[in-house]
Amino acid sequence: AGRPNPSGVPFLWLGVIRWYFKKQTRTNLTASALSTGRSSMLWRQTMTRSAGRRASIPTDEFLQESLLRGELFTLEEDGQLYACTVLNSESNEGYAGTPWSLNCRDDEVLIPHALGVRPAQQGKGVGQRVVEEILQYARVNGKKAVRLDILGQNAVAEKLYTKCGIQFVQAKTMFYEDTGWTEFKMYEFNL
Q1: Which is higher by pLDDT, 127 or 55?
Q2: pLDDT at site 51
Q3: How far is CA 67 from CA 33, 60, 63, 96, 132, in A?
């Protein structure tokens, strides 16, 4: 069951474990990671191997911009980082040609980017909790849908999102600078 914390975002009580899903700010994110330009190390600690290769890791510039815009979120327990993601309404241009089931303006859609779970926490429900928090955050912020894309070969992510009720829409080839032209699978959850 979620309970509000001082930042206004719910945190989860799981037995005696308190997991906090929170928006990061310049004051509560590890200062040394930002000042030394090593913020992507946070993601390297959480990203998993997928289909025999390392998942795409966000750049320091992307993470620092996300932090400054208030879009960087983490799931933590007792100061230990368990998962990271970026939440906003920005999408790849390939989203425009996707047959979404609900017609929404861009600002009515929440898009999670670069969700990563620390390897030691995988298989313990952390990813599912992060997705549940993302859906709750979208509801609280008046979004109509959550949409996302995953690399076509990422079976772990597919399983996670479908388990959370997020529906597959279509596979399509899209371009990202870090992957080139690659097949991605598009998913949607209407609120």
Answers
A1: 127
A2: 34
A3: 12, 10, 6, 26, 21
User: In 10 A of CB 72, how many CB atoms?
Assistant: 27
Q: Classify residue 171 as left (phi > 0), alpha (psi -120 to 50) or beta.
A: beta
Closest CA to 188 of 145, 155, 158: 145
Tokens standing for 2? 């979620």
What are the φ and ψ backbone dihedral angles of 19, each rounded to 5 degrees?
-105, 130
Helix (H), strand (E) counts: the chain: 5, 11
Greatest CA separation for the chain: 46
Q: Retrieve residue 56's tokens.
A: 């795409």
The candidate with the shortest Cα–Cα distance to 40, out of 98, 106, 99, 86, is 86
Residue 12's pLDDT is: 37
Name which residue leads in pLDDT, 55 or 122. Answer: 122
* Nearest by Cα to 166 from 104, 121, 84, 111: 111
Q: Is the pLDDT of residue 171 over 80?
A: yes
For residue 7, pLDDT over 70 is answered with no
| CA 144 – CA 166 distance, rounded (Å) | 13
CA of residue 22 relative to chain centroid, distance: 12
Q: What is the pLDDT of residues 59-83, one digit of tens each?
A: 777 777 888 888 888 888 777 788 8
- Cα distance between residue 54 and residue 48, in whole Å: 7
